[in-house]
Here is the input.
Amino acid sequence: MTDADAIYAEVERRKKRARDLGLPNGLPEFYQQFVRLYPIWQERFPNWVPPGVESATDLKEEGIQFSYMGIQYRFVWSERSFPMYDDYGTFGYLEIFVDSERVFRLQLSPEVDRNYGERSWLPGDIEAFIEGPWIEDLKRLARLATAHHEEELRLAAKHRREDPALLADLQTRFGIVSVSTAPNASENSKLPLDIENAADLSSHTSSPTEQANRAPQEITRSPKPISWWKRLRGHR
Here is the structure.
């Protein structure tokens, strides 16, 4: 085996290692859903930034830079078009730098949803990969970012649901004078199971006074869980 053969074989082995770790799928998704938003979140909605993420800065063409647990990260996203036959093809590139050292570069190709016209990116060739502690650190941050985001969504939904102005408007639109005097319609909807014994309905219904003293039932809906970086979170 020549030196060239040995080098190419090692490159392929390291590309496979990156794929086995879930990086080609997980890292672009992490960037699109979280990292690229950190600078504006830090400025306008600081509570949306997960604990430990600091100094998030949009460096424009130089990417998004932030520090986490004392280490500086920089994600650089770029798109390029190349002539292909009688048209142009567009490719995306994601690069990751850890303390100024490039540790990852991935080529991606666009895919457009014909029904909705939305564009997503499919991972392609891995053009650079240096394994190190940064992988586990970003996995940890991914889990933290997901949990933090879900909690902030829950709190925001709770705040909106309990907004005094909204509650007052609902009371006006539905003629609710006081929640303590609202009838519980579900109690009146119950019918006896035994039709033969249905003559005396008083045993199956409540008096108006009892109904008035019951508080209306609450109907709550759990927010749909956010699903992202599924492949990466399963790898260790």
